[in-house]
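Predict the structure of NAD(P)H-dependent FMN reductase.
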Amino acid sequence: MFQILNFMKKIIAFAGSNSKQSINKQLVEYTCSLIEEVSTEVLDLNDYEMPLYGIDRENEEGIPEAAKDLLNKISTSDGIILSLAEHNGAYTTAFKNAFDWMSRIEQKTFFNKPMLLMAASPGGRGGASVLAIAEQRFPFHNAKIVETFSLPFFKDNFSEGALVNKALNDDLKKAIAALEKEL
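Done. Here is the predicted structure for NAD(P)H-dependent FMN reductase.
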């Protein structure tokens, strides 16, 4: 029996962090490595740096090309994998700033694309606060959150580029399958 690979479908994946050692980006990269039948592209927020959003800046300088480029990546994808880092219980400044700029172009920022929403953290709550905020907020921006995944105690559960906790790895694979089903 032949397996038909669907490379026509494309998932973009990124971490809501600008840290070069982001544990959320590591989780995103690992998650993409588990996807075989769909094309994936891992983005880095550092490639989409933007000035701090403010209405005066927008009126004086317009919308940065980086915001347009990132929004275009979202709009032309078939699905999204987003792993949010948590700073003081909320989004990182880097992610929130990009999100604010993009929403000035298109309020429905996520274009009803199926989304796997994740968070990783060094602590036991696994980014629960930022996930709760995103689960409540993102649907107003047309996110179709298919599944969520939380990775607590990152250093204990992730090693050498992979999840080492079998139960969490199985949960992640189920979340990926749910996302793929919606593409």
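The CA atoms of residues 15 and 22 lie 8 Å apart.
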